[in-house]
Amino acid sequence: MNKSQPFTEAHYRSLLQKAVRRGNTQLVFTTSALLESLSARRENWLRTRAAIITFEECWPLGRELVFNRKLHSKVAALIKVTQSAKTRDATGLGYLAFALVEGDRSVLTGSADDRHLKIVANAVQRPDDFWQWIDRQNKTPEQASLVAKAIQYRQAGSPMDKAVIQAAAYLAVTGEIPSIRPSDAADQVFPYWVVFDKHTPEGQRALRDVARDLHIPLPQLEWTHFYFEGALTNCALASKWWDGLCRWHFNKIGLALEEAYLLWEPAKPQVMEALAGESRTLHNELYKWKLANRERIDSLKKQVKLFVENFDGIPRDQMGLF
């Protein structure tokens, strides 16, 4: 797209997940099409990322992950998550268990929940034994379907991503899988500045400068930025493990959850201002690409619609045709 394409591509990858979280269907279509246009290699990335985002943002939808060789099958999975209320227990449990593996025992609370944390932490360390144990458990058809998909994508992504997928499988066989509910209507005015978080050079710079100017510890500003903006959804169900992860992280940075908004409220406009130029550039670049590729995006929407509507009737030996 330009001389800094690797950095621009990273921005669109960040944009994609945040659009899914906030329920912005149109932005998911446009960003997915743009990423796929860069090269065929990005479509392979999108397949893996669609699976990870599904388990992270709405783990019960993991059982519906079925991809073929076409882009629209991956985008269909993302759209399902986009249009569903988010359920993040797998992310909370997986991240806490991974922290325990890394030696941080502050994740343990002395409650009965510690047992679950230790089991998933052990799974991270001994994945083959864990998956064999999962396979031996008695399962309902719904549980078996989700476990099968977790096994299929057990090697996807980073070590933390793998922990989330293990947590989803564990939750599936040890309790009821929550019902999938439609999400609320999304605010279509997307705040592009949230794309630039601590994982981007621009976000690192802005957060560092604002933390210095306001005399705020940088870890506190980074986490409140994520908590109030980066992780924001348009609709979420109660998730015990996600809430536990957030409380633990606030304790770790020495900030009470009840006081977090008092820190973020004055910092937010300054972070927005620091990223105003980058936000405008990203928005304008995406808008220009969208205008030049309307037919491509519309075609993708139609393909996703047909895929979702006709999926149950497609014989599995003909999946490659669609």
Q: Helical percent range?
A: 55-70%
- Please report the number of helical segments: 15
- The H-and-E topology, N to C, reads as HHHHHHHHHHHHHHH
Q: For the terminal residues, how far apart are their CA atoms?
A: 29 Å
Chain-wise SSE layout:
Blueprint: H1 5-21, H2 25-38, H3 40-57, H4 71-82, H5 89-101, H6 113-125, H7 127-136, H8 141-152, H9 159-174, H10 201-214, H11 218-230, H12 240-252, H13 257-274, H14 276-292, H15 294-310
3D architecture notes:
The protein has 322 residues and is mainly alpha-helical. Among the domains are: 89-174, no CATH class; 192-279, no CATH class. The protein is built from 15 helices and no strands. Helix 2 (25-38) runs antiparallel to helix 3 (40-57) and helix 11 crosses helix 13. The longest helix has 18 residues, at 40-57. The relative contact order is 0.15. Residues 314-322 have low confidence and may be disordered.
Attribute tags:
mainly alpha, 15 helices
Quickly describe the structure.
The protein is mainly alpha-helical and 322 residues long.
